[in-house]
């Protein structure tokens, strides 16, 4: 019996492939460095060790400034060949929506937004929902979040917003007062705060959350006509959200529950699915509405602009190498195909530069040559060279000597415009200025959302806001209560009462005043979960620690 086990083990070893260096050289000893005698010192000609260690030193790319923590999967998008009951050609010539049953490969990355790569997946935070479609006309990236609106409507404010949401730059401790200091001066954030501090700010898993393009795009048809469009992903598994208490209980057991849930669901064949819907609107500024349709702090009312199903997405394949396929995946809001275009949405315009520029910094100038980012359509371009270029001779076209255009003697040429009617938006003469939009209506939809919540959702919202605002500067408290009151009188009153009650509770506990950045009372950058919890944890670590003698 023992001999049989030895033989089987020997056969298994023989069947395994031999490990090599990155140059393809077989490695005969992967356990010991070369030394003078078996105790050392080490020799300079430790080539295999030096190569192995130097690569290890460089094997992580810089984490994303936003959306750092995430996971992903692969699958396909299947078009219904209709937009509601209409042919897609009525609205767009994008081929990805043409032909019932046509499948397009996709790569999806889900993420948190403001936290770093090591944040818990229970954090109160919007969730990124980015989809890369490898279409026949090249890649299309639909980059959005689970929540359908955003905090701000102008890209100028984005860096400041993220700075405010991240840890204190001096102490490196999360401080929710920073976030509310910013949003108290940004009334357009009231709607998003209402969603975020409700249970909708904590999706139970990536499989059970909605997705949205958030920004307004345009569809272009064969006549060169444009339609404003919003994208919505609806999970066929249903929507599930968590309360603060439930999230804390999960976090205590599993730091990466959502990543594990997605991977194991696909592994067992329980493939998650989402249906893609669009809302459409005639191109224009629509003065009949009490908001600007390009304002990403607003929802388009479904009774006026119904959700129209266009297809479904199925995720049926896990990554085989997370770093190569998911961590190096790069998305950009400017990655559109024929039949799609940008709207004048100020956030979209700003994101379109920022996203791709981030990838050039994070992964390198040739990030689009990596398999996870490379289109499955043919690439023929004069944009070449740079570090880590993997360009093939075919990409240069028929004449590798001509890397410019136009040319009389060869090289690449422009595509014909004849079969693609051009969309030419018209702008009336206007002054160049730095000004907010006219129809801000910062509070109307925030109040509607508050009133649409179920009572348990409103109670959770009030509790979460009260807990964090109780430790804020009185000026911030007053400003936030005013914002909520303008959205809904009951909303503002209940937050004010909640703040007062929480402050009395803290006073009774003898809560002391601490320096900024050291009194963030919760485990999340947003400050929910009990305003003294984080400070208590610091004290308990000392008080409950067991003394030990040195050894």
Automatic annotation (TrEMBL):
It holds the Pfam family Catalase-rel. It comes from the Bacteria. Its cofactor is heme. CDD domains: catalase_clade_1. This is Catalase. It is an enzyme of class 1 (oxidoreductase). Keywords: Heme, Hydrogen peroxide, Iron, Metal-binding, Oxidoreductase, Peroxidase.
